[in-house]
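debug: dumping io for the single-chain case to check the tokenizer round-trip. Nothing else runs in this session.
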Amino acid sequence: MPDNNDTKPKRTIFGMLCGFILKFLLPLIILMVAIVVGYFRQFEMPEAVFFAIVFPLGKGHLPPPLFGHGKMQGTSTIPVPDDMVPQARPEGETMLELPFGERMPQAGLGMCCRASAYDDELVYRSVLWYLLSGGRLIDGADLYLNHAAIGRGIKEAMRRGIPREEIFVTTKLWTRQYGYNKTKEAVPRFLEELGLEYVDLVLMHSASHVFPQLMTSDCTKRKLSNKECRQETWKALSELREAGLTRNIGVSNFHVKHLEEISELGSEVAPIAVNQYLFNPFSPDFAVDTYNYCKEHGIAITAYGSLGGTLQHFSTQTVDTLEKVAKHHDTSISQIALRWAIQKNVAVIPGTGNPKHMRENLKVYDFELSEEEMKALDELRNDEKAKEFFYMGPLD
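debug: decoded output
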């Protein structure tokens, strides 16, 4: 008979390990999950708090929601000198015309998706640095949890001599606030948090919930379709514009289908002023179709992810065509990507808390790409490199 004695200890160790997992480790994991879920459920927008924790952690910083604001060390967002005064606006600055006569700068500052965008002190410094450096477009959102800090930066810039009418402030309504009544409640709160009498542009942040099973709203509770929800929300935004709380209204992450649904409402509502979405030289066909639709219907475009997006910025730096064009103009690849969008008549909102990078981004007006260079960059979306870039397809 075979000797099975050597297998008995293995079974015993395996059984002991299973017993340990079932008795101690599994209950601990369940407890930790319950604690985490309970923590996030106390917030109106748990996903916003999640981002405010994850982005700083990803860069090795203490998350402000857990440890408080003003404690991030080693960032490039240095204090603004007390004696700094407003610098001249960029020479050759260009604007996009909006439906009611307002003009939006084509180069702005995005206040999302980096560690410094979730610390109130660093947000305040970033906004103040940008405005004093000559920039005038600030792009925020309720989801970013930094309205109050943005408002502080704007207030200080105004105290130092920048007129409010020169500053273009964008914010966004998150999907949890969709629905007629919720929208009418949310926008006045935005103004209170920002400390402003009006904003220049309010956008619907997304066409619909990314995870509808997890993100409920007044629309989902009333079992409205996504189309009904979008149209109802747009009607509320139109009324808020009429009341003077915002000068313009627009959308974000909408594609042709969603834009057409708003247009169905006719002349009784405000037109779509702006569509903000992920757009760069690597954009897939559906994003280009959206670009063409917007141009045909007089909708201004703001591009985020001009440099490839938060997770793909490095890949942008390795594209041969971009490298060659950047070398020809003696500038950075980032500047080439931004300038491409500017010449496509698109606004850009690169996010940075570094004053040096802010000044560099404002130099996007200092040079011009040739027709041949623009054509070469347009062709990048057909390049093999384009397959490496992630794009979320249109939502329902």
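debug: round-trip ok. The chain has a mean pLDDT of 90.
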